[in-house]
Design a protein that fits this description.
With about 210 residues, the chain is α/β, with parallel strands linked by helices. The chain contains eight helices and five strands, in the order βαβααβααβααβα. Bound molecules: thymidine-5'-diphosphate.
């Protein structure tokens, strides 16, 4: 497929959003045609599914239902928005993707990576990211950053132990996919982290002949 698909991952509070903003500015300043999206969400239907998933009142939701809802939202997102944008040659940047499901539902909810990949084999429609940036910050530090921000959603409100398992899930993914996932130490200044992001992205853009 044409285009370039970049996903961004990290534990809650890893500084992902700030880094995505800087990355988008960097790419836009280069005159590149980019599409930003996020998961769960990215299309009208997927955003509705997002509301159900993150609703703090849905305390009885089982892990399997949660994983299937993330996959359903993803399926709609991939078919309606991501694949058409890539086919048009665009650079798609997505805040979270299937690795989040492996880390959160697979590792933290204990469903296992294999079950999550099986569920997502429908949702992905054969698509995987060209590059995934993983903002690496210990869950203890991430949770502290989030707590100071706003009311927590259902996933953020989970105990520290849950977030530690998410983090371990991501570490496992980094080992499994060293060619695709670029781990970036997020416990540094915004500028220093951004420099590492730019280095990785420049490499990808060259490989894909965008620059
Ligand atoms: P969001 O507010 O977008 O969090 P963040 O700013 O940290 O990205 O909420 C998304 C939440 O959903 C986040 O806690 C991670 C979780 N999530 C999963 O558990 N599985 C998934 O497949 C995805 C995409 C997200």
């Amino acid at each position: 497929m044409k285009g370039c698909f970049i996903t961004v991952e990290g534990t809650d509070g890893s500084g992902k959003s700030t880094q995505i903003e800087l990355l988008m500015k960097y790419l836009t300043d280069k005159g590149l045609d980019i599409v930003f999206s996020r998961e769960p969400g990215g299309t009208e239907i997927s955003e509705k599914i997002r509301e159900i998933i993150l609703d703090i009142d849905n305390k009885n939701m089982t892990g399997t239902t949660e994983a299937l809802l993330y996959a359903a939202a993803r399926s709609q997102h991939v078919e309606e928005k991501i694949i058409p944008a890539l086919e048009a040659g665009k650079i798609v940047i997505c805040d979270r993707f299937v690795d989040s499901s492996i880390a959160y539902q697979g590792a933290a909810r204990n469903l296992g990576a294999d079950v999550i990949m099986q569920m997502n084999s429908f949702a992905l429609h054969g698509l995987m990211p060209d590059m995934t940036l993983f903002f690496d910050l210990s869950p203890e530090k991430g949770i502290l950053r989030k707590k100071n921000e706003r009311a927590l959603d259902r996933l953020e409100a989970e105990k520290l132990d849950f977030h530690k398992r998410v983090y371990e899930g991501y570490r496992m993914l980094c080992k499994m996919y060293p060619d695709r996932i670029v781990p970036i130490d997020a416990d540094r200044s915004v500028e220093t982290v951004h420099k590492d992001v730019v280095e990785a992205i420049d490499r990808l853009l060259k490989e894909k002949h965008y620059v």
